[in-house]
Design brief:
Number of strands: 2
Radius of gyration: 45 Å
Order of helices and strands: HHHHHHHHEE
Helix content: 55-70%
Distance between the termini: 151 Å
Largest sheet: 2 strands, antiparallel
Strand content: under 5%
Length: 169
Amino acid sequence: MSDEKTLCCEAKVDALIANKETPFTAADKEKLMGLGEDLIDKLTPAEKPEVKDDVTANTEAIETFKSTLKTVEDFTAIMPAGVKEVVEQSVAAYKAKRDGLVKTITDNSDKFEKETLEALDDKTLAGIAESITKKPVDYSGMGSGSKKTGNGEVAPLIYADTDSPKKEE
């Protein structure tokens, strides 16, 4: 029976020496073998539960939290009052801009359905709206037909018709 006890104790001493959390080395084996099994059990560190590192735990918590947020209202529900107000105003302005683009397109063209336009991205909507919107014609670069002379007076307009009286020389 003492051989069994010694073998059992020797296995525990070897495990104690192999454990990285203890300061024992192979040189301590003889001293440790002289101790009783109950003392060796006390020297053996308790097994720690497996703890996930902070980064992994935080990442999992963030992913779980993000999966609960599906709509803008879900996000704004957890925001401080001032931030919530700014976000709600921004969302309202964004929706108004999109609705304006859709209205511009539907008012100027009968080729698009409202539901189809609402499914398009903003850049495409803006491009369509710009391409079908009638631009006002600007004739300002053509001038009035008269010219100012060097002294600030307006030179008379000379018509090119042949019916006008000719000046005699």
